[in-house]
Amino acid sequence: MTRFAKLLVSTAILATTAFSAHAEDFRLGLITPPPHIWTKAAEAFGAELAEKSDGAHSVSVFPARQLGNEAEMLQQLQTGALDMAFMTVAEVSNRVPDLGAFYAPYMAKDIEHAGRILRSDVAASLLEPLPGQVGVVGVGYGMAGLRQIVSRGDVDSADDLSGLKLRITPFAPILDFYNALGAAPTPMPLPAVYDALANGQVDAIDMDAELIWVLKYYEHADTILQSDHMMFPMVGLVSAKVWSQLSEEDRAMIRELMAKHVDTTIDSYIAKEADWLKQIEGTGKTYTKVDASFFGDAIEKWNAIWSEKASSLADLRSVAKDTE
Questions:
Q1: How big is the chain by its Cα radius of gyration, in Å?
Q2: Domain with 227 in it: what CATH number?
Q3: Residue 312: predicted pLDDT
Q4: What InterPro entries does the database record attribute to this sequence (predicted)?
Q5: Does the pTM exceed 0.85?
Q6: How many domains does the structure of the chain reveal?
Q7: pLDDT at residue 5 greater than cutoff 60
Q8: Euclidean distance between the first and final Cα of the chain, in Å?
């Protein structure tokens, strides 16, 4: 064997070894804390992948922004530096506006209805362009329930939210909603929210029932509005670069198992959200249930903006109507 041929063989062996080491232990990032439903689903996915692959693959789960915020993790997925993530659809919608259609105010009548929309063929079709558009493979949806509003002050009408610094997840659909309402939407990472609400850095927050209860955001509130105004989907993602190096067998196994475990979060929120809301209502804070009429013309303004931004909005509304 010539020296050049030996070099080629050695290089091939090194490349194969490097790939095998990478493929055996996938890294999966999330922003949610360890006790969160998404984190538990990620851990369950990793455990089942290890079992079904007979130990050939494992997943190291990094919760609570250990690998960065979602924008940073998405960049890592694009380069292949991160293998997988369970991520808010919100973050991906910053790059793919069609996904912003999921946040149409009151498109979902209740949490069960939100689950049916996310499990539809139309919703699944919105994941198909992601490898080319964002550099990630979307395998399926989960969610974090419906959105509520927690305020440090009294809120009797939408006018009382006008001008308030209101913490939001930093993405365009919810920014447009609160701008239309006249609030001052304030993007802020999740770990900073409790202290910000406690010290008055923000006046109110947009949040799901699980975190309002589990992380005790209600402790620094005067008013909780059960508004249920938007669903908050999650998506299971794999780096397209990593995906391209996997065998067809491994792709099929990962797709099936990750889709299964992100989907379990939908059932978890359907089962638990009513109880969380009941416990929040029992804290003694002013607790008010409101509907779409509470928000005045803000919903109409949002619809006007997003009918132009998201071509998928009409299709998702059709699904919503068919699955009521």
A1: 21
A2: 3.40.190.170
A3: 97
A4: DctP_fam, TRAP_DctP_sf
A5: yes
A6: 1
A7: no
A8: 70
